[in-house]
Amino acid sequence: MKILKLTISILIACIAIFGLQNCKKEHYPEAPVCFQEEVLPIMVSNCTQSGCHNSFDKTKGLDLSNYEGILRGVKKGNYHSSELYTVLVNEFGDIMPPKPYSPLSDEQIKTIARWIDEGAKDIQGCGPACDTTQANFAANVFPIIETFCNGCHGTKPPQGGISLATYADIKPFVNNGSLLGSIKFESGYSPMPKNGSKISQCKIDIIEKWIKDGAQNN
Question: Do 39 and 127 touch, CB atoms closer than 8 A?
C-alpha cells in the first residue's frame, strides 16, 4: 500500500512539473490579426508606391490601399491559394514588391498568411491601447516610421530620393517640419503615407511629442 501511494504521489508530481513546463505562451490562442493596424500598413507601405497598386495608378487594375482592393487577391481561409500570398513568396517568377524595393520580411508574410487563414476580416480599432507618454526614438517613433513609411523610404534607392531608414536620415525632415506636416496631412506638405489613410492620431501624437522633446536619438 505504501509503495502504491508513493507511486501515485510521484505520478502526480511528474504531471504537475511537466504540465507547467508545457504551459508556454505559444499554447495560448493568439489574438486575431488586426487588419487596420497590422495588414493595411504593410500593404500601403510596400505596394502603393508611385506607379504601383494605388488609387491613382491602379497597376494591373489593382488598388491595394484599401480593404476591398486587397480582398481581390484573397481566398478567405486559404492563404496557399491566395494570389496576395503567392506573389510575395514566388519561387519561380517575380516577387512583389518588385526591385528595387525590398521584399517583405518573413514576419510580415506570416502576418498576411495568418490574416487570410483567419478569414481575412476587416477588423478595425483593435490595436493596443494608446500611450503617448512614451516617445523614445528607438522604441516608439522608429517602429511607426518603419511600418508606415519605409516600404517606400527605406529601400535603395528610396522613393522620391527621400530616405527615412535611419535617425540621421529622418532628422533633416524633422528640422524642416516636413515629417510632421506630412503625417498630419497639412497644407503645403505631401501627405504621407502616400495614397493611404492618415496614421492614427495616437501615432501622430507620439511623433509630435518626440519632436517637442528635442527629437533625440534615444
Answer: no
